[in-house]
Specification:
Elements: E1 2-4, H1 8-19, E2 24-27, H2 31-50, H3 56-64, E3 66-68, H4 72-76, E4 81-84, H5 90-103, E5 109-112, H6 119-123, E6 132-136, E7 146-151, H7 157-169, E8 173-178, H8 185-201, H9 207-217, H10 224-231, H11 233-247, H12 255-262
Parallel strand pairs: 1-2, 1-4, 2-3, 4-5, 5-6, 7-8
Antiparallel strand pairs: 6-7
Amino acid sequence: MLVVGVGTMGRGIAQACAAAGIRVRLCDVDRATAERGLQGVLETLDRLVARGKLDAAERAAIAARIELASDLESGAADADACIEAVPERIELKLETFARLDRVARPDALLATNTSSLSVTEIAAATSRPDRVVGTHFFNPVPVMELLEVVRGLRTDEATVERAVALGRRLGKTPIVVRDFPGFATSRLGVVLGAEAIRMLEQGVASAEDIDRAMELGYRHPMGPLRLTDLVGLDVRLAILEHLHRELGEAFRPPALLRQMVRAGKLGRKSGEGFYRY
């Protein structure tokens, strides 16, 4: 297994795969970035050991299954699956898949972790669009049960079945959706999050009470504003902008969201969003 892109999602995917007994190679734009990503995985494993959720032997076994690839070519050379988790920019994903197409095995599964971009468009950057599929994981990957498998226009049934089987091996519950802007989860999730931001903007209630309403009234494990902080305000803004272009006014980003992103209030990763961390 090759994981391309070792940010938050790439690290989580690598950890989940290694925990399921799969050998994983990590690749990023440069060696230093990949090394930081691997260190992030090891630190997460150490925290699990400290909290008693993983024993030392399990930690060592998981860590031993993860290694760095010197470059994309060597990482993909004998991988039976390549999962892309680079930032959510279409030009970057197209470039990544064009390179994977040149170096990956002909029978390799090529998967994108996009949360909203067109799998069909990404697949068109390759000479094998039938073997390209969306595998939309959720953060934190080792914990979240859902895997959204996205069928592109030219994705064949065998590729979908392989992606579903991989998800089940990782202990996930896969759902299969058609390639349509926002798929199922992002489309619903960002609408709820955007409306919560508008309510805060209009002074309907505090952030805490808006979140509490959904947690206690609808049994959501996390309110929409706290979830936006976890995902990243910049990530949510990018998804809304894409869906606004594709689907119309229902997805217009709230002015407050734009202002907060411009101010650098991106959520947990910056230390402040709708809450302070």
